[in-house]
Design goal:
3-stranded antiparallel sheet, transmembrane helix (chains A, B), homodimer, EC 2.4.1.223 (chains A, B), 18% strand, Spore Coat Polysaccharide Biosynthesis Protein SpsA, Chain A, 8-stranded mixed sheet, disulfide bond (chains A, B), alpha/beta, 10 helices, globular
Chain lengths: 330, 330
Amino acid sequence: RYFQFCKLPGRIMGIRLLRFTSVVIIVLLLVAGALTALLPTIKDDKMPILKRESKPQSQSALDSFTLIMQTYNRTDLLLKLLNHYQAIPHLHKVIVVWNNIGEKTPEEMWTSLGPHPVPVVFKVQTVNRMRNRLQNFPELETKAVLMMDDDTLVSAHDLAFAFSVWQQFPEHIVGFVPRKHISTPSGVYSYGSFELQNPGFGNGDQYSMVLIGAAFFHSGYLEDFQRQPEAVYALIDETQNCDDIAMNFLVAKHTGKSSGVFVKPVDIRNLEKDTNSGYSGMWHRAEHLLQRSYCVNKLVNIYDGMPLKYSNIMISQFGFPNYANHKTKM
Amino acid sequence: RYFQFCKLPGRIMGIRLLRFTSVVIIVLLLVAGALTALLPTIKDDKMPILKRESKPQSQSALDSFTLIMQTYNRTDLLLKLLNHYQAIPHLHKVIVVWNNIGEKTPEEMWTSLGPHPVPVVFKVQTVNRMRNRLQNFPELETKAVLMMDDDTLVSAHDLAFAFSVWQQFPEHIVGFVPRKHISTPSGVYSYGSFELQNPGFGNGDQYSMVLIGAAFFHSGYLEDFQRQPEAVYALIDETQNCDDIAMNFLVAKHTGKSSGVFVKPVDIRNLEKDTNSGYSGMWHRAEHLLQRSYCVNKLVNIYDGMPLKYSNIMISQFGFPNYANHKTKM
């Protein structure tokens, strides 16, 4: 009898226990919620970096870079450049994008003349496309990409310094060739270089793009490039041009800042005249510049706005090449 | 009887309740702890900025700067400089730190020759101290401080560009005069300029300080300076020197990065020879440089470490002063 009786307080305690538990759980949820709200929101301009982090990376992959070089019809130059770039500090790997469709790569010869300090991977393509070099290559293990045209030579010293600059501006395109857009009264944009000036823009000059034919940028941007509107790919394939302008749009949209940081090169050379193929680059075509202005305006339509921002910052190395290059000669 | 008897299960439940509660509380603390650990730690290099935000600021106070100029025994130069700086774009106010103890300021004459576009405030000091200029002046309403020595003239154009650079690097000292420390094998540090070289540091040069005698920095750092160890103030007063070195230590500790960003000046001049007082600056004293090395080592002891970091970045304006200064002459 008293057992039944005595169950009562037990039940009461049970209910109290239940109430108490639920109250505590609610408090727990509130605290958790409040604190979670305080967590840092992922900044856009950090995104590519985070993305890369997801791939496991060797230490060397973190403080080194991958050279991506697309080549077409200039194998002699390619080999000359491959030899040059073997001696670059912090170079982790070379990816050669082989756009000579149906032609054999010089891999065999290259290997036979080894050993080489830095591994070279030949990526044979099935179509000769400008944007082949903008794939997210599985062989790419570093955060930093150095993209070079196959007719351009930049000194080891310039590359080492520019890489150290990129490490301080990882969300920007850090390179040696600045370009700009200007908007005309008609609202149509023009593309150009130093010869093109913004009317009434006072002293000095500005740039709004840094070309990826001689630049460092974050490998995360190659992933982002795979997720662009079809119209962007169509534009690049139709013109066989402007992939570098598209990358500047992508980066500017991503960061909300100017896409590029210009590093003044001490020694940059165009080796085109040295090729035996006699092949001269796309940029010699009469329509080249017109196409690029056309692309800027097209991209503004596709992205529904002009993301490019101007910068007038030029970075050089303190005390190099002249010991006192920081002293102003007047 | 059964009451006594029946208290038992109650007590048992009580104990259970107690146990359960304590368990839940522990869980609560653990979760809270875990989530708190995930909270963003206030980045030091943001602190001064946050601090400033607390003061209400006019829009103009946000995109303009305050010139702080300390003067001693060079009133003729002071007036020349005040006239020059009146024409600087984005200048919000001038604060003159009047170290001529017991002397009347030229305020009356200055006002009589008005109107002047930019307000000038004379802060009469009671003791002639180097660090008077590092007070957190109530008249200071802008985030950006331009600090200038009273014998140095920097062109309006250099100042406008450097200010735009500071706006992109607000946690750094952005200025025109780089200096460095080097550590000797004995572990003792030396202070110097380009003549001083790190043994075996390869190509180019480095700096680890940017002097505040011709530089922009965040006004929050003036607040931080008020909270330094007494030994720092004693060192500065004893030497009447090194306040600028101390500021570089403060900023480097604050950011964990190099304290300064060096902007290559196009036109910077020392006007000392132009003064009628014949007074020549402290830095002419034989012991000046020795004192500064002494200060570096003292500050390392006071702060229990060497916070200064090296940089080799030199910033110039793209396309200025020469239209194509980005083109490498070879």
